[in-house]
């Protein structure tokens, strides 16, 4: 007969398995079947770019801040990624967080010659639309049909990101 102590691992194991399964289902549901929100980005020159106008292209939306060490560290690789794939139809929008002063964002963009669209999220509405983004960097990859296919919190593994982009751009 099994004693109570010999079965003490069962309940935590079952709960752990359920949490992992639910997290996986929630993540898969969010990333594969969620349409990108219908938002309009306003770039540093005041030009508007909507997610609707980007349909038919693979899009990366990167939430970042000039005060975010990881964001600053990953930005050269984001530039390289954009430059590598822009000729194949990749669009890239770097969205500066609500708390990031506009003059810091402009200075960062100009001194580093960022080649893609840089937008300000002055009211925080864009971050809210993408699921209340609060951690930076957070990057979304959106397919040609306007569906979110991947969400990275933190710096992505660029080799994996490039494989994903190549697959989506070819499809």
TrEMBL record:
PROSITE patterns, sorted: THIOREDOXIN_2
Alphabetical list of InterPro entries matching this protein: Redoxin (IPR013740), Thioredoxin-like_sf (IPR036249), Thioredoxin_domain (IPR013766), Thioredoxin_ResA/DsbE_sf (IPR050553)
Span of domain Thioredoxin: 30-170
A family per Pfam: Redoxin
Protein name listed in UniProt: TlpA family protein disulfide reductase
Recorded superkingdom: Bacteria
Lineage: Bacteria, Pseudomonadati, Pseudomonadota, Betaproteobacteria, Burkholderiales
Signal peptide: none
Gene source species: Massilia agrisoli
């Amino acid at each position: 007969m099994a004693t109570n102590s010999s079965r003490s691992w069962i309940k935590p194991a079952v709960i752990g398995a359920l949490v992992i399964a639910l997290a996986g289902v929630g993540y898969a549901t969010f990333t594969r079947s969620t349409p990108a929100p219908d938002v309009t980005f306003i770039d540093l020159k005041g030009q508007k770019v909507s997610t609707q106008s980007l349909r038919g292209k693979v899009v990366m939306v990167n939430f970042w801040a000039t005060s975010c060490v990881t964001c600053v560290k990953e930005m050269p690789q984001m530039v390289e990624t954009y430059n590598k794939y822009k000729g194949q139809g990749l669009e890239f929008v770097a969205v500066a967080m609500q708390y990031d002063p506009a003059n810091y964002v402009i200075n960062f963009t100009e001194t580093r010659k960022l080649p893609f669209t840089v937008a300000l999220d002055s009211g925080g509405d864009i971050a809210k639309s993408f699921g209340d983004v609060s951690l930076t960097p957070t990057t979304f990859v959106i397919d040609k049909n306007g569906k979110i296919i991947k969400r990275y919190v933190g710096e992505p593994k660029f080799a994996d990101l490039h494989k994903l982009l190549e697959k989506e751009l070819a499809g």
